[in-house]
Amino acid sequence: MLSRIALFTSALVLACGLGFAEDAKEEKTIKLVHVESGKAVAPDGSEDDATKIVVVKDEAKPAQEWVVVKDGDFVKIVHKSCKKVLDVEGVSGDEGASIILYEDKAEDNDNQRWSWVGEGAERRLKSKSSGLVLSIADDGKVVQVKLDEKDKKQLWKVVDVKR
After folding, report:
1. What is the Cα–Cα distance from 48 to 86, expressed in whole angstroms?
2. pTM of the entire structure?
3. What average pLDDT does the segment 2-14 reach?
């Protein structure tokens, strides 16, 4: 019997066109776009471990390309070119903790796993480890904060990258 999260994730795949990569042949490249600003998620200047994740002008650039991979009831968001993942820095449970690019860990990886919260194409992205959601700090860095249904800065959408 599928869990509610697995059913929700399956419904999200159908509703939002969010393709999960089961193998390399089926990779679906996406951009994660901040609804309020229209900016896309990207590493801040490099693809090294611990590079901060920021939002930048939405353009057709490889730095903004990601693949969403199903991992049980959650997903990992993998950078298309370097294969590193979105990660809550230091496995922090604190509000304001930075989201970084980091090697995908085989174990103790809850800070690298995410779920979608809400309905429709615009949703919040929630950390498995902290229970906090992604937002944008004043300096443009992507951080985690407490979920606030009224805060539009917490809304994200998935945009397919057309080739």
Report:
1. 12
2. 0.84
3. 40
